[in-house]
């Protein structure tokens, strides 16, 4: 669970930074690229960790249906993120900064909800084990 907490912290920091960047009137290509890269890496690691934790808990006999739902939603969210990244290439971000800002707002909100759900579903299983 400590790895997941670290991934969440990295992700939330990148989301905060991206939020600040999208308040600017123009795209700072270099900084946006770096933040998106860090966010993608943290989010990918987080997804792998969430699926692994869910699988481990389910294999150990946990009967919480929220674990299966979280695992499945986490796997499905990979496609949503990939689609966002594919649609919003750096070239497209620069060409349509206002459109990217709107899309980024929606994606950041979705990612924050995912983190909240992961914490809500997984934390009770690890608090009990302590």
Name a few traits of the molecule.
5 helices, single chain, 130 residues, mainly alpha
Describe the structure in your own words.
With 130 residues, the chain is mainly α. The mean pLDDT is 94. It has helices at 2-21, 29-59, 65-87, 90-95, 97-129. It has one domain (2-129).
Q: Report Rg.
A: 16 Å
- Helix-strand makeup class: mainly alpha
N-to-C order of helices and strands: HHHHH
- Work out the strand percent: under 5%
Largest sheet: none
Number of DSSP strands?
A: 0
* Number of helical elements: 5
In the predicted model, the low-confidence regions spanning at least 5 consecutive residues are: none
Q: What portion of residues is helical?
A: over 70%
Could you say which overall geometry the principal axes of the C-alpha atoms support?
A: elongated
**End-to-end Cα distance:** 11 Å
The total domain count is 1
What's the average pLDDT?
A: 94
Summarize the structure.
This protein is mainly alpha-helical and 130 residues long.
What's the topology here?
Layout: H1 2-21, H2 29-59, H3 65-87, H4 90-95, H5 97-129
Helix pairs in contact: 1-2, 1-5, 2-3, 3-5
């Amino acid at each position: 669970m400590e790895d997941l907490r670290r991934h969440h912290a990295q992700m939330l920091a990148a989301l905060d930074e991206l939020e600040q960047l999208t308040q600017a009137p123009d795209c700072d290509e270099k900084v946006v690229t770096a933040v998106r890269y860090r966010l993608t890496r943290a989010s990918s690691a987080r997804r792998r960790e969430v699926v692994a934790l869910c699988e481990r808990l389910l294999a150990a006999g946990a009967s919480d249906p929220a674990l299966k739902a979280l695992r499945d939603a986490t796997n499905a969210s990979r496609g949503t993120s990939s689609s966002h990244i594919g649609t919003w290439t750096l070239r497209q971000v620069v060409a349509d900064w206002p459109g990217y800002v709107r899309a980024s707002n929606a994606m950041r909100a979705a990612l924050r909800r995912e983190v909240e759900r992961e914490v809500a579903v997984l934390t009770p299983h690890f608090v009990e084990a302590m």
